[in-house]
Amino acid sequence: MTDPTDALVGQLGAGVVEQTRFRDERTLVVDKAHLEPALDAAFGLGFTVLTDLTAVDRHPGVPRFEVVYLLTSLVPPARLRLKVRVADGETVPSATGRWPGANWLEREVYDLFGIRFDGHPDLTRILMPDDWEGYPLRKDFALVEEPVQFIGHTPKVPSQIIPKSKQP
């Protein structure tokens, strides 16, 4: 059986910045300008299931974020991870036209990381309250400590438990 990811790499050419393979799962890092063609090509090659869509904060790395698409082909069985790196404030095209299930996943990434998706039908908060300020999964988001009344013992607050990170 031929690997459909080989055909994708061939179609994208120079748009593939990096590629790795681990346990028969290929990861392609694509240039932001080639993301939409990569998603279209992957869908056309049978990667019709969007298993997950998430993001990674690479702070203090530049560009800061990676948006990660985990795609699955049922016939032939294959998995593909597509990544695109974006700077803080940059937008990514929405995948909701190809995979309607991307709707809530993109809203979650927006809500927790602040990454915006162009063309999303309703890019609003999904987990945090509407009046929440900031994006809690960013590495520079300050931990908040709210006093909670416990009966019988007083637990340590997060700042006493979590070690301080070393600044570069």
Summed up:
The protein has 168 residues and is of the alpha/beta class. The protein is built from 4 helices and 7 strands, in the order H-E-E-H-E-E-E-E-H-E-H.
Structure, described:
- By secondary structure, the protein is of the alpha/beta class.
- It has a single domain, classed as NADH:ubiquinone oxidoreductase Nqo5 subunit (Beta Polymerase, domain 2).
- The protein is 21% helix and 27% strand.
- The chain is built from four helices and seven strands; from the N terminus they run αββαββββαβα.
- The strands form two sheets. It has a five-stranded mixed β-sheet with strand order 1-2-5-4-3.
- β4 and β5 form a beta hairpin.
- The mean pLDDT is 90.
**Strand arrangement, major sheet:** 1-2-5-4-3
Order of helices and strands: HEEHEEEEHEH
Strand content is 25-35%
| Number of distinct beta strands | 7
- Indicate the radius of gyration in whole angstroms: 19 Å
Q: Uncertain segments of ≥5 residues (pLDDT<50)?
A: none
Characterize the biggest β-sheet: 5 strands, mixed
Instruction: Output the number of helix runs.
Output: 4
Distance separating the two termini:
48 Å
Give the CA-based shape.
elongated
Specify the CATH class.
Alpha Beta
What is the CATH T-level topology?
Beta Polymerase, domain 2
Helix content: 10-25%
